[in-house]
């Protein structure tokens, strides 16, 4: 399943099916500038328990789940495995029924596209890269937040993959032949340190024109961040594994079981 998602540009999947501006902040999400409220597409963890708390429905011949949170948002999840889904979130403060209309429209376009998706060159997902760098016995301690965001086994350090410009204001250093930028300070009220480096061009027309694909390791201290970055630089310099056939079809049919035990 991840092998397929690593090859799909979510903005390209819904363009030109949605008549709105599309932008991408990372390889596994898409922001849709629908009015009056924006919609965000992203890959999320989607547990069986969370699905059981949502309303099941069919969207473009695919199984979907909808949850309405009055005054906050509307979420449509298209499951792709027992634990992972592609989420379409309408964000805003209007009544949830108004927010679900744009979310369902975008989800319909997306589900139609994912029935036979255009596949690009594979990109690393954050946890796939971390697992490739740590010992196999630590794989279960690698915790995903999203496909672009992952916790290392220590629980406090993270890897993010984003479309951004290099932070030229930060201290410049090097890991081997790779230029890195080291940024120490207070973030969200806590002291921490980031080590950033470029993985090259964004490879998508939906990112900011001057953005690159940046990898960022964060940790409590700069020595720890640098230590982790030294393990990640050589991993991310290589292409991701291509030894798994991408899942087809990617989505579940309306009557297919998507929960353990059917």
From TrEMBL:
Protein name: DUF3558 domain-containing protein
Spans annotated as Disordered: 236-262
